[in-house]
Amino acid sequence: MEGPYYPRAIPTDADADLRRVAGQGRQAAGRPLLLEGQVRSLDGAALPGARIEIWQADDAGIYLHPRDGRLAQRDTGFQGYGRAVADAAGRYAFRTIRPGRYPGRTPHIHLRAHPPGGGAPLTTQIYFPDEPLNAQDGLLRRVAEARRALLLARLSSTDEGQRAEFDIVLV
């Protein structure tokens, strides 16, 4: 589900590094996160050229969106939205932060993947397996328990923060 906070206007700086906004000298607050994965077809073939978008809340749980009532307090050093194109091996990567909590939801990252050459995009949300609020999140609970693992990133530590791996299969 796209959710209520998909950007109404795409930011001028919409690259794959959400931790820095062009023209600003500081990095976003929050725990650094490298989000990466591979885009494949149902038969397992890599999908180079697939376009991936992500959007998420900042460290304080505030979205870059006019409907977020706390927009005036958001981290202006955080991009909030980014785009990437899968390479020849179907791999993509974003430098971002671990999103903050906002009322009623567990931390998550929204993702939309567009198949190369057109076709219907996949829109989903990426969740973190170590979040205690997952068990209370209304949207995540709507997903059959046997399928929830498909929405969880695989986490590991890095020198800079955390790495989240999330693979995408497009039909």
Automatic annotation (TrEMBL):
Classification via InterPro entries: Intradiol_dOase_C (IPR000627), Intradiol_RC_Dioxygenase (IPR050770)
Xref: CDD domains: intradiol_dioxygenase
Domain of life of the native organism: Bacteria
All copies of domain Intradiol ring-cleavage dioxygenases, residue ranges: 35-63
Protein name per UniProt: Protocatechuate 3,4-dioxygenase subunit alpha
